[in-house]
Amino acid sequence: MAVCTGCSLLCEDIELTLKTGAISQVKNLCRKGHGHFQALFTERIVPKIDGQEVSVDQAITKAVDILRNAKHPLLYGWSNSALEAQRVGIDLGKKLGATIDDTSSFCQGILMELVLTGKLPTCTLDDVRNFADTSVFWGADPSNSHPRLLSRFAYYPRGSKRQKSYEEERNCLVVDVRKSATAKLCSNYFRVPPGGDADFIASVIDVLDGKIPKYGDKKRMIELGTILRKTEYGVIFPGVGLVYALQDKIELLKTLVAKLNEITTFKVVPMVEHYNMRGFNQLLLDDSGSINRVSFHSGQVTHGPENSIMAAAKICDAALVIGSDPLSSLPFGTAKSLAGVSLIAIDPRRSLTTDAAQVVIPSAMYGLEAGGSAIRMDGVRIEFEPIVKSDLLSDEQILARIKEEI
Amino acid sequence: MVGAMEIYKLLPTDACKECGYSSCMALAVALLNREKKLEDCPALLNPKYADKFKKLKELLAPLEKASETGLIIHPEKCFGCGNCVVACPVNVAAEPTRCGIGLGPQGDRVILAVEDGVVKCMNVKECRRFGPNKVMCNACTVTCPSKAIEFV
Predict the structure, then answer these.
(1) E strand or H helix at A65, and its extent?
(2) CA B42 to CA B17: how far, in whole Å?
(3) What ipTM, to 2 d.p.?
(4) Mean pLDDT for all residues in chain A
(5) Does one domain contain both A96 and A207?
(6) Segments of chain B scoring below 70 in pLDDT
(7) How many residue pairs bridge chain A and chain B with CB atoms within 8 Å of each other?
(8) Beta B118-121 vs B112-115: how paired, if at all?
(9) How many independent structural domains does chain A possess?
(10) Which of A33, A120, A142, B61 has the smallest number of Cβ neighbours within 10 A?
(11) CATH number for the domain that contains residue A261
(12) Does A373 map to a domain?
């Protein structure tokens, strides 16, 4: 049995049959996870300095030189590494006096902070399977982003209190700007215009208060209010769509959840994309009091938007990017700034960032070549063992060596 | 997926009854259920219906890929989400502690399983749609987000 590290569901029921150089057969792995594992055999990288192939030791030594001489180093990525590597990474950040940030900074960060600090009630996915009768996917399309979420936890499985499952006992609501693949399956779909989520929430609160909603189709909103009121155990899965639409108005979601909890039980489980983003947020929160955007410069711990990847990329003079591809995913200005500094990339696979990096260090893929542990999207710790023997160093070993040499 | 009316429109519609059915619509349904072949309609073999015969051949070609229960899987559309695996009542009965609670099956008594990232059909005789006393179950098709599974 292997653990898939393709998304934050960390599916543990994967059966792999291997032959030399490829996966010959794999059971229970979704298409996304299959692509994730298959790329292991097609998109590998070799250690490089300035485009020239070198040994791993030379690449690590060069990375140490760059980081040691940097005045404002930036450590970024982390969401695709095991907890053990993240732990070493935070210690390395302290040692270097570096700015440290992860992908949650421009993704689910503001929502994750509310969940991890206990300001939003949350539950595990096993609770969702066993007790939930209403799942609300808001600004999220799990059929594409987390393909097995509906089948493993949220809608189709039979739980201890939900034996009749989707046929009679479960509702699945989708609130989204488009009729996504998930919206086609759900029992009720509510369309919102882009950026209209705040108004929609205000209308839901009005309906729950027994008032006439100001926004949207009144009949449909009252229908939604009735479903929510009748719910025994509800779960909201907010996606990046909702987080981007709300931004500064995230308090509205808190108000809605508080209002729902006055009537019945409602929990929030953020739709985390990368497999261990929540793990990094939790570790950094325990360590520094903030989930991301932390600077250890001059021995002082500071937190704020000035330490986010967007701002830090413009002032840093060296960056270590681990398990992420910021040059593809970040806005052009930030990507251009990052590409201009001394860039060290640690990744199991080729990406635009590894192509542009000054130093490239290949690492073993967690879940397949390296063991460790990670935090699932609902906060449950999942351990995994290596399935394939590999000579490559894991993220943890690479970072430990860098830390030691510094 | 092709419907009986589409097939009917391309048949001679002269109700000659030489195929053994009382109307061309009945033949269209039989063709859709793969109980008859195009060659069983003698009128269609007439050269004046050559174009229609050719179009019907093309129209009915996808049905040849269907299983005995009429299930057609389009692997290129499949997400591998496993909704059908968990929703299938036969799968749940075969492995209640696996498929029943959302996990992938381990044994070989199930009808649907996800292999290499896409759904695969096996043990077709266990399907509720198999045989003359079939139940028109559609748990696997209604739970598919990408319409990768359909019945004829």
Answers:
(1) helix A56-69
(2) 10
(3) 0.88
(4) 92
(5) no
(6) 1
(7) 96
(8) antiparallel
(9) 2
(10) B61
(11) 3.40.228.10
(12) no
Tell me whether residues B101 and A35 touch, CB distance under 8 A: no
Q: Hey, what domains does chain B have and what are their CATH numbers?
A: 4-65 (1.10.15.40), 71-151 (no CATH)
- CATH code of residue A288: 3.40.50.740
User: Can you give A118-167 as a three-state secondary structure string?
Assistant: CCCCCCCHHHHHHHCCEEEEECCCHHHHCCCHHHHHHCCCCCCCCCCHHH
pLDDT category, A21, cuts 50, 70, 90?
A: low
Q: Write down the pTM of the prediction.
A: 0.89
**Closest in A13, A144, A147 to B104, CB measured:** A13
Predicted local distance difference test score (pLDDT) of residue B95 = 92
Local structure of A193: helix, strand or coil: coil
Residues A334 and A236 in one domain: no
Answer yes or no: is A252 within a domain: yes
For residue A151, give the nearest of B78, B82, B117 by CB distance.
B82
Which distant-in-sequence residues (6+ apart) come within 8 Å of A90 by Cβ?
A100, A283, A284, A287, A288
Task: Identify the three-state secondary structure at position A265.
Answer: strand
Quickly state the pLDDT bin for A398 (edges 50, 70, 90). very high
Q: What's residue B69's pLDDT?
A: 79
Taking CB atoms and an 8 Å limit, are B80 and A34 in contact across chains? yes
Q: At which residue do the structure tokens 């398990």 appear?
A: A323
**Chain A: residues touching B (Cβ < 8 Å):** 13-15, 25-35, 129, 143-144, 147-148, 150-153, 155-159, 166, 181-182, 184-185
pLDDT in tens, A216-244: 888 999 999 999 999 999 999 999 999 99
What are the chain B neighbours of A183 within 8 Å (beta carbons)?
none
Provide the pairing of β-strand A99-102 with A294-295: antiparallel
Once rounded to an integer, what is the mean pLDDT over residues A174-200?
93
Q: What's the rounded Cα separation, in Å, for the pair A88 and A284?
A: 11
